[in-house]
């Protein structure tokens, strides 16, 4: 700097500029070092962050401080006082406001040039977030706390992919997904590149089973706070509201369960029932640790820089860290499954014509390969066959539906579900 002290703004980008402006033997194919690369990428690349909680706050900070300029974030939650110990973009005065709004305002205020745009809502809301919304981004970075939302974003990324006449992916339609997650002192980062790596759906069978309690213990001999919470959730809720499911994102529903669990805990002399613990048990949330969030976010953004610039070898394709006994990390590679529901080119589903449509739907919900929630079924040629509040042929066999003229032997069933963002197809043949 010829003796001139660099400004704070210039100092901020020294390391990133050094990384992108110097050649290296460890770069991916196609990397061309250039002094103005950071600024060029900042003007072109658009990143979508899903989640503005503990991990999401760290992701937004790290992205902005790594040179990313056009960042958008989606989150549907409001700030609670219990968030303040680890979600560092929020202050006491922000309690009650939407996380996405406050996080965006904070980063824009602190990082010159950052253009973070906030969105409040569910990622599956097609009115707010149609496919055209997602297609404008180059990267999806996930800071989520549940499997269903991850599956949905994974399927959205793959549904946007288009192929040329030779069957190769058109590069401009490719969106990379970087998934981060934390559980206490453990965390993971997974890089998903359509056509190259396994997707989230491929690795569903690697997920550990959720903790479940014996129903007899819950109902008859509760010994822990968790037993009381599960009793209110599984038994008392159904008695009080038999026609309505619990909305885990609704404060009033969670408050009702908390109060019932507290009453039961007092009856059996059990301590430890709190509102935050109730939410944690119902949503299967493990207490978050700020340092784990920071480390996983750093991993995610490091991969984001590599993906957009090719400046270093991209993770292939999964890393896990464990801070419970020192600092331990392990990298692994998983291959795509040929019959994957999302990234496999063909997903066959054979059904017999003597099966009821409801049995087909049950198969789609119970088979781990599909794991759908509430499928909507349409005939390609004749329209809806199963749609809540509109029509329901679930008690009819496929043969009867064909006889009624609502389905043909060479027809295609179109399956739509909230857990996936693309359509599934299954054809009926005269032989099956």
Structural features, described:
- The chain has helices spanning 8-12, 14-21, 37-44, 54-64, 99-110, 131-134, 147-159, 215-220, 225-240, 251-268, 275-282, 290-309, 357-366, 398-403, and strands at residues 46-50, 70-75, 115-120, 139-142, 176-183, 186-192, 318-322, 328-332, 376-379, 383-387, 391-392, 412-416, 424-427.
- The protein is an alpha/beta fold and 432 residues long.
- The strands form two sheets. An eight-stranded mixed sheet has the order 3-2-1-4-5-6-7-8, with helices on both faces.
- Helix 4 (54-64) packs across helix 12 (290-309), helix 9 (225-240) crosses helix 10 and helix 9 (225-240) packs across helix 11 (275-282).
- It starts with 7 loop residues before the first helix and ends in a 5-residue tail after the last strand.
Give the N-terminus to C-terminus distance in angstroms: 76 Å
What is the radius of gyration computed over CA atoms, rounded to a whole number of angstroms?
24 Å
Across the major sheet, the strand order is: 3-2-1-4-5-6-7-8
Helix content, binned percent: 25-40%
The chain-level structural class is alpha/beta
Order of helices and strands: HHHEHEHEHEHEEHHHHHEEHEEEHEE
CA-based shape: globular
Q: Segments where pLDDT lies below 50 for 5+ residues?
A: 428-432
What proportion strand? 15-25%
Mean pLDDT, all residues: 86
Question: How many DSSP E strands?
Answer: 13
Number of helices: 14
Largest sheet: number of strands, sense, barrel closure: 8 strands, mixed
List the helices and strands and how they pair.
Elements: H1 8-12, H2 14-21, H3 37-44, E1 46-50, H4 54-64, E2 70-75, H5 99-110, E3 115-120, H6 131-134, E4 139-142, H7 147-159, E5 176-183, E6 186-192, H8 215-220, H9 225-240, H10 251-268, H11 275-282, H12 290-309, E7 318-322, E8 328-332, H13 357-366, E9 376-379, E10 383-387, E11 391-392, H14 398-403, E12 412-416, E13 424-427
Parallel strand pairs: 1-2, 1-4, 2-3, 4-5
Antiparallel strand pairs: 5-6, 6-7, 7-8, 9-10, 9-12, 10-11, 12-13
Helix pairs in contact: 4-12, 9-10, 9-11
């Amino acid at each position: 700097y010829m003796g001139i002290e660099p400004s704070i703004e210039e100092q901020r980008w020294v390391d990133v500029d050094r990384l992108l402006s110097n050649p290296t033997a460890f770069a991916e194919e196609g990397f061309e070092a250039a002094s103005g690369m950071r600024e060029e990428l900042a003007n072109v690349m658009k990143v979508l962050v899903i989640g503005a909680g503990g991990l999401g706050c760290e992701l937004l900070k790290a992205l902005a401080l790594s040179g990313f300029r056009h960042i958008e974030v989606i989150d549907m939650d409001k700030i609670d006082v219990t968030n303040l110990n680890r979600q560092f973009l929020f202050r006491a005065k922000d309690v009650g406001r939407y996380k996405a709004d406050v996080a965006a305002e904070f980063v824009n205020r602190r990082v010159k040039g950052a253009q973070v745009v906030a969105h409040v809502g569910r990622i599956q809301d097609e009115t707010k977030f149609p496919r055209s919304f997602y297609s404008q981004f180059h990267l999806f970075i996930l800071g989520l706390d549940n499997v269903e939302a991850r599956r949905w974003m994974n399927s959205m990324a793959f549904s946007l992919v288009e192929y040329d006449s030779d069957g190769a992916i058109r590069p401009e339609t490719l969106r990379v997904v970087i998934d981060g997650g934390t559980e206490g002192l453990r965390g993971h980062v997974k890089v998903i590149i359509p056509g190259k790596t396994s997707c989230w759906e491929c690795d569903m069978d690697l997920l550990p089973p959720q903790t479940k309690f014996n129903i007899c213990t819950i109902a008859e001999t509760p010994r822990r706070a968790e037993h009381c919470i599960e009793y209110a959730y599984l038994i008392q809720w159904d008695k009080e509201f038999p026609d309505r499911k619990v909305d885990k994102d609704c404060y009033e529903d969670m408050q009702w369960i908390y109060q019932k669990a507290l009453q039961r805990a007092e009856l059996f002399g059990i301590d430890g029932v709190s509102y935050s613990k109730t939410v944690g048990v119902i949503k299967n949330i493990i207490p978050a640790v700020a340092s784990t969030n920071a480390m996983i976010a750093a991993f995610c953004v490091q991969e984001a820089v590599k993906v957009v610039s090719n400046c270093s070898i991209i993770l292939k394709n999964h890393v896990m860290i464990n801070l419970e006994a020192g600092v331990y990390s392990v990298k692994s590679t998983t291959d795509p499954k040929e019959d994957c529901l999302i990234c496999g080119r063909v997903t066959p589903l054979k059904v017999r014509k003597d099966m009821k449509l409801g049995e087909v739907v049950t198969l789609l919900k119970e088979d781990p390969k599909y794991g759908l929630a509430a499928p909507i079924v349409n005939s390609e040629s004749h329209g809806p066959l199963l749609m809540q509040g509109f029509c329901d042929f679930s008690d009819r066999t496929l043969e009867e539906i064909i006889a009624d003229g609502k389905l043909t032997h060479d027809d295609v069933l179109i399956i739509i579900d909230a857990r996936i963002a693309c359509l599934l197809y299954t054809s009926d043949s005269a032989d099956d």
